[in-house]
Structures are given as C-alpha cells and as structure tokens.
Amino acid sequence: MMSSGIGAPSVHHAMVVIFLEFFAWGLLTMPVISVLNQTFPEHTFLMNGLVMGIKGILSFLSAPLIGALSDIWGRKFFLLITVFFTCAPIPLMTINTWWFFAMISISGIFAVTFSVVFAYVADVTTVEERSKAYGLVSATFAASLVISPALGAVLMERYSDTLVVALATAIAVLDVFFILVAVPESLPDKVRPSSWGAPINWEQADPFAALRKVGTDHTVLMQCVTVLLSYLPEAGQYSCIFVYLKLKMGFNTMEVAIFIAVVGILSISVQVTLGCFMRKIGAKRTIILGLILEMTQLCWYGFGSKKWMMWAAGILAALGSITYPAISAFVSIHSTADSQGAVQGMVTGMRGLCNGLGPAMFGVVFYLFNVDLNNEQSVANSDVEADDKWFNFPGPPFVFGGFMVVLAILVALFIPEVHGDVNLHRTPSEKKRASVDLQYEVEGGHKPTTPLMRSDSLAQL
C-alpha cells in the first residue's frame, strides 16, 4: 500500500489532482479538433462520436468496479492509475494520431478520476462538510477548463501544436508525480485489508445493478426515463459541440475558447442559484423549466446557421443546466433517508449509460444525414446549401435530440407531486441527513461539471 504523502489527507490534495489533469486536457481542446479533422476528413463527426462513445461505455462499465476496489485497496493507488491512463494518450498526439484516438477510446476503462476523487473527499470530510468540499472540487474543475482552452489556443496560433502537446504532457507528468509524492492515503488502515487478495463486493461492482432496480418504483421509473430522454442528447451534444462550432459553424480557435469560458462561467452562476429556483417554483417545475430551455437550445443549435445563433444557444444551455441537479434534488427530497443511495444510484447509472450512448448516437446521425467535412465549403457562415441533400438544416442530431427532450417534458409532467409530509415520518437524525443530502444536491448539483465542459467531454475529444 502506498501511504506516503505530504501532511494529512485533505480536500486540497484532491483539488490539485483534478486541476492538473483537466488543465492538461483543456490545453488540447483546439489542437485535438484540428487533428480529428485531419485524421478523419471524410467522417469527422462519426469518428468523433464513436471514439467518445466507446470511451463513455467503457467508463460506465468500469467505474463501479474501480470504486469497489478503491474501497478495499485504497484511494491513492487508483488516483495514480486513473490519472495516468486518462493522460496516457496525450503525447501520442504528435507521434501517431490513429494511436492517439485509439488510446483515448481504450483509456475509458480507467478514465473515472472523479469517482475516486469524490471517494477521497468523502474519506476526509464529515457529512456536514461534504457539500462544501464537493463544491470546491467542482469549482476547481470548472476553473481549469475556463482558463486552459484559451491558453492552448494562443500557444497553438503563436507557436505550434507540438508545444501545446509538450506542455500538456509535462502537466500530466506533474500530476502523476504529485500523487506519488504528495498525496497521502485517505482510506483508514482499519478498513483496508492486510493483503491485496481480499474479496470485493461484486454486486457493488456491477454497473447494471442499479439499472435493474429502476422499474421497482413508479416515481423513480419516470424520473429515470426523464433522465434518459434528456441526458442522452445532452451527452451527445457535449461530445461534439466544440468540433461542430469550429468545423461547421466557422468559429476560429480563439472564439471557441472564449465560448467555453463565457458559457462555463454563466453556468456556474446559474447552478449557484438553483436553490432559489426550487424554493420559488418547486423541484418539479424547476425540472420542467430546465427541460424547456434544453429543448430550445438543442433546436437552435440544429437549425441555426449563424454565429450569433450559436451564442444564443450556448446561453440557453447554461440556463438549462439546472435540470439534472434539480432531478437529483427532487429524488433527495422525496426519498426516505435509508433509500437515498440506492435511488440516486439508479439515476446516476442511467446518466452514466447516456454518457456512452449519446456521443455514438450523435456521430451516427451526423453520418446518416451526410454531414461531413469533405471540403471547406461545409462551414456554415453562409446559407446552408441543400442541392443534393434531402434536409436543409446543418445540425440534424441536435434537432433529433430536441424531439427527445420534448418527450422528456411530457414524462416529467406526469411525475407525481409528493406532498411535503415526507419528512414527518423521519427521525431527527434522518431529517438532518436528508437536509444535508439536499444541500449537496442543490449546491453541488450532484454532478462535478458545468455545461459544455463535462469531466469527460474535453478528455474524450
């Protein structure tokens, strides 16, 4: 067991690990788009979707197992493994681009750093402190991606892709070195086995265990269906929006970087106010409002052909970021304290599945509608040409996703309102725990990300 480190285990250790990993990948946002188009000029969007789809599915399958193993063998080892393999493809970008994208796909098996980081944070905080701690980690992640794409774009334009890749590689190596030298083990010795041959809970490691329980409760089933219909297109959008803006909408590298920064900062501000929304209009209405905003921005992305339309859609995407946190909060409010983990696991499992299927779905729809980049005239600053095509809008997957969200809205409308007597049958300790759970859901959103900048969106590009 690796138990060395600097000082006592703390949230700050986790924050540094997250910042360095995603700062390294954020630097590569613009270079990766160019390399993707050069490597797959005839099927750019299809290959982008398949690469990220494979990575997402592998992450969904491996995350519970890695989490279960870290509960036994310790967090530090798995922090090292997940960071190393998530960043392993970076130097291949200037060596062999085919191997680069192949490694990105395969790295999905270990690209679950956030799962281990949140377990690390849970080890070193009390229940009362956890909401603030998760918020700090989420803010650190967001800050790294607000800064790094713009820096990477500047370095790429002034110098070369090679310099950006070298810098990203150096930061990734620094992250691995930091874990080896500075990060202490957070899992107490008394709960860790004395040997590496200790058995694990295979039921806990089963990625489909939570999904099999979805149909056992009508209300939870409707919530999970809402998550499936809304987050599937959202995950697909995350996977290709930067590529789409640059290669199809005519954004230059700096404009994409500014877009990421502005929308990211706005989305953070919106999620901070989620508690106010829920107190004013209720959790269910907040969910429906978020879905309406998501549906509108997806359609705007799909039908829009001007840059200002993309900016408007981006702003709506930031405003619509309240949907998933509101669903998590709704579950937290209307579940008993002893079922919180199980129910949240179902919702999170459904979302994890979407992370794999959404990108692949978008890539295939782009391919079926013959949206590719065989020549420079595919940039849509001018009117969209439709001479030999049977459609006349540039983003078919976004429009298809918008229709899926319409279905999600219809399902959400029929989610039963549970009256405010849920807490009446709870003990004082259960009420306190539920209150803390809700505070975490509302403040941290139960997702360590911001719109257009998910933890795996940039890393999977």
TrEMBL record:
* Annotated Major facilitator superfamily (MFS) profile domain residues: 10-419
Bilayer-spanning residue ranges? 12-33, 45-65, 77-93, 99-121, 133-156, 162-183, 256-274, 286-303, 309-331, 352-369, 398-416
The protein's matches in PROSITE patterns, at most eight in alphabetical order, are given as: MFS (PS50850), SUGAR_TRANSPORT_1 (PS00216)
Please classify the protein's predominant subcellular localization into one broad category: membrane
Please state where this protein is localized: Membrane
* Short name of one Pfam family: MFS_1
Q: Which PANTHER family match?
A: GH21943P-RELATED, MAJOR FACILITATOR SUPERFAMILY DOMAIN-CONTAINING PROTEIN 10
Name of this chain's protein? Major facilitator superfamily (MFS) profile domain-containing protein
What is the scientific name of the source organism?
A: Stomoxys calcitrans
Q: What is the lineage of its organism?
A: Eukaryota, Metazoa, Ecdysozoa, Arthropoda, Hexapoda
